[in-house]
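Session log. Operator J.P. requested a structure for one protein chain; no other inputs attached. Running the standard single-chain path with token output.
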Amino acid sequence: MVTRRGMGFTGTVAAMVLTLTGCGSGTVSADSVQQSVRDGLASQGIEPRSVSCPEGVEASVGESVVCTVELWDEAGFGEPVDRVRVVVKEVSGDQVRYRLEPLAVGVPDDAEPATTEHPDGEPDTTTEP
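Structure written below.
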């Protein structure tokens, strides 16, 4: 369930797990993040038309990147969403776990996430870079 906040909303869609790119690299590549956003949204029944991340994300808890999304069904979240924020939750070896937060049109990139309830917990997806 995504709760609304003011004129827009944010909420967590899914928790994802990625593998770091490159030996000793502390960054998940933009290509890997983009694919994981596609996969994470699809796992929730939301099909993105396009996903574009300006850069990868550093493998450090709290780091984030905001990706632009176009959805086939603009009402997929109940309100138009044009971005997804990817926030690193945990780093363990070469695995990076993060959450996806949809951002409604007009909601600032740095808006605080709304509380999200997952009746069965957060789904995990593993994606290879």
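Operator note: Confidence is low (pLDDT under 50) at residues 1-12, 115-129.
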